[in-house]
Each structure stands twice: as C-alpha cells, then as structure tokens.
Design a protein that fits this description.
Blueprint: H1 4-25, H2 28-54, E1 65-69, E2 76-80, E3 82-84, E4 89-94, E5 101-105, H3 106-111, E6 112-118, E7 123-127, E8 130-134, E9 144-151, E10 155-163, E11 166-175
Parallel strand pairs: 3-11
Antiparallel strand pairs: 1-2, 2-4, 4-9, 5-8, 5-10, 6-9, 7-8, 10-11
Keywords: Membrane, Transmembrane, Transmembrane helix
Length: about 180
C-alpha cells in the first residue's frame, strides 16, 4: 500500500527544488555571483591547507624550523618557531667549544617546562633569574644538549639562553 505522506513530501521537496533552480539558473548574474563565492571558498581552503602544510599552525613544516645563531662564543639553537600548547617541543643547543654551562633565563621557565635534558647535567640549580645546568665539557669540542620542553602558556614568547660569554634569543609562538 503506497504511503501518501511520503509521496506528498517528495512532491513538495521537488517543487521547492524546482523553484530554487528557476530563481538561480534563469538569472545569469545570480549564477555568476554564486560561482564567484564558490571560487573564493575554494581559494580560501587552498590557502588554509597550504599554510597548515607549511607549519603555520604548528606540528612541523618548513616554516616552523628556526635557528638562533649566537656566534663563536655563544650557543647555537635549533628549535620550532611555532608550537602547540598540548605538544612537547625540543630545543637542540650546540654549546661553544670548551663550555659546559647553560643557563635558561626566567622567561623560558615561565612559558616552558623542561621535561628531559640529554645529556643529563652533572649539576643543576635555580638562581633568581635562571636555571643553571653544568655538563661535562667535551675535550675542546662543542657539546650538543637537547632539551624537551612542554609549553605552559599560549602567546608570543622571547626566550634567552646563555652559555659562555654570549647568548641566543629565540622567538616562539605558542598556539592553544
């Protein structure tokens, strides 16, 4: 037994669709406006996907990898310039030759929580303005220290690391 309510609903939907098509399809200017909005939407989505692949929103990509070069008597740091609040990040620090001391200034400790330091420091102490870590200085070579940190606050952060007679400044954007 046929369902009259279903047939009526289908007829009403078909009639509404036919009227909508007549309004847009019969009006070339309206159709061009719809196409223009669609093209804008496609372009916006393409820009969004390209930005995400480049690393603008964190989690890797060529735009997030940064270097802070301190010179011959200061540390060199490789880090991510854009990080996420919920994801750990790693700073790879190359200390100057013969230097075994690294200081993370208070600004770093306010916005990032150190989780792991490799190699382990032989001594670590907090001073009023920094976290001081001492390592076995390699025999005249440069020591690489990797620090895994978790961001604790979103925003734009400027962080200074000091080793030897100089320092390196990192600018990091932390996204929620």
């Amino acid at each position: 037994m046929p369902d009259n309510d279903g047939a009526t609903a289908a007829r009403v939907t078909t009639d509404a669709l036919r009227r909508a098509r007549a309004l847009v399809c019969d009006e070339p200017r309206a159709q061009r406006r719809v196409w223009r909005v669609q093209r804008f939407g496609w372009a916006a989505m393409a820009v969004f996907v390209a930005a995400a692949c480049a690393g603008v929103f964190g989690a890797g990509g060529p735009l997030t990898d940064r270097q802070a070069r301190g010179g011959p008597s200061a540390p060199d740091v490789a880090y991510e310039g854009v990080v996420r609040l919920s994801r750990a990040t790693t700073w790879s620090i190359l200390l100057p030759a013969g230097i075994g001391t690294l200081a993370l200034e208070a600004s770093a400790l306010e916005h990032f929580e150190p989780r792991l330091v490799v190699p382990r420091p032989i001594e670590e102490r907090r001073e009023e303005s920094s976290l001081l870590m001492m390592f076995h200085a390699s025999g005249g070579g440069r020591l690489r220290v990797n620090i895994v940190l978790t961001p604790t606050a979103p925003g734009l952060h400027e962080v200074r690391l000091t080793a030897g007679s100089g320092g390196a400044i990192m600018r990091i954007v932390t996204l929620p």
